[in-house]
Design a protein that fits this description.
The chain has 13 helices and twelve strands. The protein is α/β, with parallel strands linked by helices. It is globular, with a radius of gyration of 21 Å.
Length: 351
């Protein structure tokens, strides 16, 4: 009989789908899901969502009685991870999604989130750190590191395959959600500098988010709208082709855990130009295998884009090195087998 896992988290997210599909494929698990139903898109809905969260342990226990899962897994240590911790079920595996999960940093709820997170870490039988940067905050608060598995879920290297781009212009791509923390406005302003310098480029911005119309208006205001393509939300299956058609990948978040988007770009031979923050420093060394850009430094971003494109040999060496790195460290087939085996090991040890 198949072992069953209850997943707590937003099941529509690409990251969550990768996790669940990997467990089905490499662990032969059956997956059932539970998630909050109220969208987090207005002040009224945020209040309703908090109320739903308060009463959610009853709903989760009801799901456990109905589905009879063998174990429970959850994303985000400060939300679904805590709900897993108080579910009364074991074994529990929780995943820290961000560098700390204590976000936003100025939030009045931060002291409460710290308490919730500490409890989740204590109750968990296994803690996922999708990359080394996540372990720093764990060690700082005294998490039992014997429970921590440091490995990314990885990406499908058969889908995200390398291609050769011989374009004589910058063909850049951005694949992050159109939210303020990803600083698409800074990216557009840097390309406006390139436009003023009469440097030829195209910029593809993939995805959707609250800033879509604002960014479209900004591109128009900067007089670069003819060179910027907004694709809107696309299926993940269409993403590899867009990456393969590009030669530079740009991502400027102000905070980062482990970015599957970065691995996807590296796998498709896109040269990474990313923000200079710990989550990116784990993988990128400046002017070695990519560029690290100071947050909101528009002039630096423009200059480094020009440097990247003009230094063809350095760029080509980097993309070869990056593809090899992804094959060795972020192969979905290899990594998800390790994770699935670990879950079976947890279940066997509790018999």
């Amino acid at each position: 009989m198949k072992r069953k896992i209850l997943f707590l988290g937003e099941s529509y997210r690409a990251d969550a789908i990768t996790w669940m599909n990997g467990l089905k494929e490499f662990g032969d698990f059956e997956i059932c899901t539970w998630e909050l139903q109220t969208p987090n898109n207005s002040k009224l809905n945020r209040f309703k969502r908090i109320l739903e969260y308060v009463f959610s342990p009853l709903s989760i226990r009801k799901t456990i009685r109905r589905e009879k899962p063998d174990m429970i897994i959850a994303e985000r240590t400060t939300s679904y991870g805590f709900l897993a911790a108080i579910s009364g079920m074991h074994p529990i595996a929780i995943a820290q999604q961000g560098r700390t999960d204590l976000w936003p940093e100025g939030s009045v709820l931060l002291p409460l989130k710290k308490i919730i997170q500490k409890h989740a870490f204590k109750k968990a039988d296994l803690i996922h750190a999708w990359g080394p940067v996540m372990t720093i905050s764990m060690k700082a608060i005294g998490v039992d590191m014997n429970k921590v598995l440091v490995i990314p879920k990885g990406i499908d290297l058969s889908l995200f395959s390398p291609s050769t781009n011989h374009s004589n212009k910058i063909e850049a791509i951005v694949t992050r959600s159109l939210q303020q923390e990803y600083r698409h406005d800074s990216i557009l302003k840097a390309f406006a500098i390139l436009h003023q310098k009469e440097i030829n480029f195209s910029l593809t911005i993939v995805g959707d988010g609250t800033r879509l119309q604002f960014l479209k208006d900004l591109a128009k205001e900067l007089q670069i709208e003819s060179k910027v393509i907004f694709t809107g939300r696309i299926p993940n299956t269409k993403l590899p082709k867009l990456l393969q058609q590009s030669n530079i990948y740009i991502s400027m978040p102000i905070t980062e855990g482990v970015s599957a988007s970065l691995f996807e770009a590296m796998a498709c031979n896109c040269y990474p130009v990313v923000s200079d923050i710990p989550g990116n420093q784990s993988w990128i060394k400046h002017r070695e295998n990519g560029q690290l850009i100071e947050i909101d430094n528009i002039e630096m971003l423009a200059e480094e884009l020009i440097w990247s494109f003009e230094n063809t040999e350095s760029r080509n060496n980097a993309i070869i090195q990056n593809r090899k790195f992804v094959e060795e460290n972020a192969n979905y087939d290899t990594n998800m087998k390790v994770i699935a085996d670990k879950y079976h090991e947890l279940l066997d040890s509790r018999k």
